[in-house]
Amino acid sequence: MDKKPRIFKSTFASIYPMYVQKAERKGRKKEEVDTVICWLTGYDQSGLQAQIEKKVALETFFEEAPQIHPDSHKITGVICGVRLEEITDPLMQKIRWLDKLVDELAKGKAMEKVLRLSVKSKPTSNKLNINVDAEERSSNAKTYEFEALIQPSEVGKGGAYVVFPYDIRTEFGKGRVKVHATFDGEAYDGSIVNMGAKNDDDSVCYIIGILKSICTKIGKQLGDTVQVTVKERE
C-alpha cells in the first residue's frame, strides 16, 4: 500500500507562518499572503482564520476549500525542483501551486501577475481600455473601463483600493482628480490620488478607494477582481 506524503498530514497552521515569514523577509505583507491563499482556495478571511485555528491538515484544508480558482492551471513553472505541470497527484499539485504563489510574491512579482489577472485590462497602451461614447466625444470627456484587483489599504481598518492604471497628470493635468466611479456597477463618488505608492517600474501609482459597504453589496473581497468605470466630475 502506498503511503501518503507526510506533508499531507502537516497542519496548515504550522505551514502558514512560514509563508508569512518568507514574504515578510522580502518586504511583502501578511495581508498579501492571505490574498493569494484566498484567491487560490476560495476561502474568505474569516474562513481562512477558522482553518488556522482548527489546525486542520493540509489535506483537509484543500478538501474543504470552497473553490479552487479556475485560473489555477495558469500557475506554471518549477517549485522545489519539480515542474508544476508534471505533478500527477491533485492534492500535491494544489500544495505546490500555493508554494509557487508565495514564492512569486516573495520575489517581488506584482500582485496582478501573481493572481494571473486577465490581460484584457491592458489595451494597446499597456495601461487601460478607454471607452468613449458619442455623447462624451462631443464634450471631450472620457469614461475609463478596466478590470482591477481589490487590494488592502496600508492604513488598515478594513480599507481597500484599486489601482487606476494610468498617469493622471498626463491624462488630467493634475495630481488629484474627483471622479464618478462604479465597481461592478455600484456607484461611488471619490478621488484618484497617489498615496506614495509606486508601480513595479518605479512610476507613480494612482489609486481610488473602494468602500467596505460596496464590497459587501457586490459580493467581493480582498484579492478579487472588479470591473471599474471612472469618469471625471466637477
Helix/strand/pairing class, anyone?
alpha+beta
Radius of gyration: 20 Å
> Beta fraction of the residues?
15-25%
Order of helices and strands: HHHHEEHHEHEEEHEEEHE
Total number of helical segments? 9
What spatial order of strands do you see in the largest sheet?
A: 3-4-10-7-8
Q: Give the termini separation.
A: 72 Å
Spatial shape? elongated
Largest sheet at a glance? 5 strands, antiparallel
Unreliable runs, pLDDT <50, ≥5 residues?
119-130, 132-139
Mean pLDDT: 84
Q: Name the helicity range.
A: 25-40%
Key words describing this protein structure:
three-stranded antiparallel β-sheet; five-stranded antiparallel β-sheet; 10 strands; single chain; 234 residues
Report what the structure shows.
α1 packs parallel to α5 and α2 runs antiparallel to α5. The chain has 234 residues and is α+β, with helices and mostly antiparallel strands. The chain has a five-stranded antiparallel beta sheet. The chain has a three-stranded antiparallel beta sheet with strand order 5-6-9. A two-stranded antiparallel ribbon has the order 1-2. The chain is 35% helix and 20% strand. A hairpin with a 2-residue loop joins β7 and β8.
Write the layout of secondary structure elements.
Layout: H1 12-25, H2 30-41, H3 45-54, H4 58-63, E1 78-79, E2 82-83, H5 90-106, H6 111-114, E3 129-131, H7 134-139, E4 143-149, E5 151-152, E6 160-164, H8 168-172, E7 177-183, E8 186-192, E9 206-209, H9 212-218, E10 225-232
Antiparallel strand pairs: 1-2, 3-4, 4-10, 5-6, 6-9, 7-8, 7-10
Helix pairs in contact: 1-5, 2-5
